[in-house]
Design a protein that fits this description.
With about 110 residues, the chain is α+β, with helices and mostly antiparallel strands. The protein is built from four helices and three strands; from the N terminus they run ααβαββα.
Length: about 110
């Protein structure tokens, strides 16, 4: 079962836009670039977690005590959000349910 915390949205590489469209508003370009690099870093972190046999779990799905226990070892920060690398058997049933709800919210935002 493949679990991905990367939003399922297609963001093109915005680096070429300034050449083709020099009159693009600065704020729009900055937001497109921020979204692109955020998704790219999240995809990279998730790929590294999967290679090591972990799932990438958002901090919002975990309790404070578990976050405190593994904070230095397997914490990944992408932008302003924190993610933790955990194995499936390390997650409690409540944390697993929260992760499933988080994934459903991502699907609803994308779809």
């Amino acid at each position: 079962m493949s679990i991905s915390v990367v939003p399922n949205r297609r963001i093109r590489d915005p680096r070429q836009l300034l050449f083709h469209f020099p009159s693009i508003p600065v704020v729009r370009y900055a937001q497109m670039a921020a979204d692109f690099y955020h998704d790219q870093m999240l995809r990279l972190a998730e790929e590294l977690a999967h290679r090591q046999g972990f799932l990438l779990v958002p901090a919002s799905c975990l309790g404070w005590r578990k976050k405190q226990d593994i904070a230095g070892e397997r914490q990944v920060s992408v932008g302003k959000r924190s993610f933790y690398m955990l194995r499936r058997d390390e997650l409690t049933s409540k944390e697993w349910d929260k992760l499933q709800e988080y994934l459903e919210e991502l699907e609803q935002e994308a779809g």
